[in-house]
Predict the structure.
Amino acid sequence: MLKAIVFDGYGTLFFTSTGSVDATEKILALNGRRDLSPKAFYGEWKLLHHRHMEELPDFRLEKELYALDLEELYQKYRFTRDPRRDVEVMLAIQGTRAAFPEVRQVLEELASRFLLAVGSTTDTAPLLQDLDRAGLPIPRSRIFTSQSLKVYKPHPAFYRAILETLEVAPEEALFVGDSLKDDVKGPQNVGMRTCWVNRKGEERGDISPDLEIPSLQELPEALGHFPK
C-alpha cells in the first residue's frame, strides 16, 4: 500500500528555465569571453558539478561545489578573474524558481491521502524560499536536502534517510522526479517505487520507472495503477 510520495525539487516541482545559462552568459561577459557558448560552458560546468558530487571524499555544500567547479573551469580556460567572486552571479538565482502551474493544485489534492515530502539535491535555504513562495502543502519536517542529509543523490543513504524519517517501508513510498539517474534508478536501488516526470519527451533507455507522466497534472490518475 502506498503511504508516502517524495518529490524531487528542481525540474519536477520548480521550473528552472534558462536561469543557469543566463547566469553563465553574464560570467563569461565579465571575463570578456563572448566567443564561448554559454550553453556549452554551462553544460561543461554541470558535468563537472556532478563529478564533484560523486567523487569528493567529504560532503560539501552545493554552493561550495559551484565555486570549486568554476575555479577548475577558470584554470582550464585561463580566466584571470576570481572565480569565488564571480560564482555569486550563479548563486544569486538560487531561491528564485517558480513552481510549475499545476503543482500546487496536485499537491493539495494528494495531501489528504498521502504523506508528502521533498527530496532534493540542493542547499536548504534556497529550496525553502521557493517552497514558501509557492505555498506548497509540505511541512518543513518533511523537506530533505543534500545539505540536511549530508549526502547527494543517487547515493542510497539519501533515500534511506528519508524513508527512516517518514517511517515507511521502501515499497510504501513513491519517488517522483525528472532525472532517470537520481529520481528513478537511485530510489529503485533501495526498493522504492518510482514515477518519471518526462516533461521533455526523452527516451528512457534501459531504466524502467513504475510510472511515466508528461507533467504532475497526470499523477493523481496515474496513482490508480498501484494496488490499494
The mean pLDDT is 96. The first strand starts at residue 4 and ends at 7. The CA atoms of residues 24 and 38 lie 6 Å apart.
